[in-house]
Amino acid sequence: MNDRAAAVAFILLTTALPSRAVAQHDLSGEWSARYHEDQEHRIPGPLLGDYTGLPINDAARLKADSWDASILALREHQAKPHPSTYSLRGPANIRIRKEVDPVTLETIAYELFGTFGQATRTIWLDGRPHPGPYAAHTWAGFSTGVWDGDTLRVTSTHFKAGWIQRNGVAHSDEATMTEHFIRHGDLLTVVSFVHDPMYLEEPFVRSTNFVLSPAQEIGRTQFDVVDEVVGRPKGHVPHHLPGSPGAQLKLTEFASAHRLPPSAARGGAETTYPEYQVKMLRPPSSSASAASVARVEATEVPRRAQGEQTRDEQILLMPVQGNVHMLVGAGGNITVQIGDEGVLLVDTGSGGPNDKVLAAIRQVTDKPIRILVNSHVHADHVGGNEEFAKAGRWFGGNAPGNFGLPTTNARVIAHERVLARMSAPTGQRAPSPFGAWPTETFFGSDKEIFFNDEAIQLLHQPAAHTDGDVVVFFRRSDVVVAGDLFVTTSYPVIDAENGGSVQGILDGLNRILDLTIPKDKQEGGTYVVPGHGRLCDEADVVEYRDMVTIVRDRIQNLVQKGMTLAQIKAEKPTLDYDGRYGSSDTFIEAVYRDLTRPR
After folding, report:
1. Which residue ranges make up each domain of the chain?
2. How confident is the model at residue 23 (pLDDT cuts 50, 70, 90)?
3. Class of domain 317-596 (CATH, top level)
4. Which pLDDT score is estimated for 521?
5. Greater model confidence, 561 or 521
6. Mean pLDDT score, 319-327
7. Whose CA is closest to 80, among 539, 509, 537?
8. Is residue 401 predicted with pLDDT exceeding 70?
9. Which residues contact 419 (CB under 8 A, 6 or more apart)?
10. How far is the C-alpha of 423 from the C-alpha of 417, rounded, in Å?
């Protein structure tokens, strides 16, 4: 059932069951999938352009129309498993195993293993809370369950951006899901409701069935990435441009093959109701187009982007891995490395809540702050330089690179372009106070530090967010600090006045992808601290890199057609991402400016 009928059937089924305070069924066992529901959509899979039964909006349609299956040949896309929003629909069986408390012997969790791609999933039953907004996301998400009579109701959050159908129909990383696991003897039915404020007009409902199969054996699979296609330039992202033959095929081929009105194949909440069949029999409106439906702005309702910081937000210091922590709530994210030698900070925030930042660090360590590293020049990342430098201290004597001068405060390290932007020629007033300036700089492509028993690389990324951007790589902890080269709360900010460029942003994102190595199934492994927003890994950077590349290519195509900036904005080249990243005007202007600049 791919429509509202599934929800109605579920309500009738559950209301007919007796209500008991404790009426739990054991869900554990080997379960074999049954494919009679939506069989063609599951095996072999939906045709391109088939969005029937999906309550998607125009942003989702544009993203699905742009999807090119050859993107799966890219190394950074090959090992992705099916996310939990889709994994039970894939061609794979499952094993459900109970996790038992060793003292009370109560069931505290169920583990689901064996879904396609094997993004093993735990459903916690012990009442633990969901992680906060800055926690990393996974393909499995974070799931908790409670019993409603004989039904286990499961709530899942913290998904990576994934898909609800295998032909490019996506969900965002703001999607959540509610499921109902219902066992009747040897049969298991799972009814799921996927909610997504970015791509769905209303919850997407479907049911999936399994039968107990004790004899089955499910082995572990391992994915290794390879270069499947030779000759692709670095950073290439396959996709269909709006109006291209590939995109046009999705608009017409499926509908024509099944003799459907094109609008019916395009999905949308309206098309999932029985009343829509009557509407299809009416003559089409003269203003209707076979290739499109009326667009709904993805940003009509103002909302807070995931991980976006507010003035009244509390300072939060959260561990990443190894020696590294991420501190949020003080402007730009601050990265804190803690060890026997002391504390190293990457960026110092806006400078307003310095006391709260220091107090948060002091809850973990009383070691002195030794080193400050600036990822770039902006005030929300260097505003605390002066105060934290004074609050800290170097080991004594001369610091390396400090021009032979004695150093008593913490060292402040940045690329030379940051010092140039913060200072001013002799006789002119500097934009930043002298005490906030870097005490030592480097002018080459990189600088190396060994601190707290860890090798640390400072990698200059020229002409990106600014001309002084530095990516910091903690090699033992396996953490990359991106600064504002990569954020999760907005489109890239291209500071052209300070030497930034769109191509530099893309070069920087691809460089971060060169540094990151996922642990398994394109998640975990190397973690990435963005300049603003939640903790990420390689797959999150890939999603952002793909977005920037696709939007750049769309605008470039429109520029080549001779369109003006106003005409390009009217084409809404960012429609499928505006619901996630907010206003795109400044970003479109920056891309247009770079593409039309005389060479």
Report:
1. 4-37+78-212, 317-596
2. low
3. alpha beta
4. 86
5. 561
6. 98
7. 539
8. no
9. 437, 438, 441
10. 10
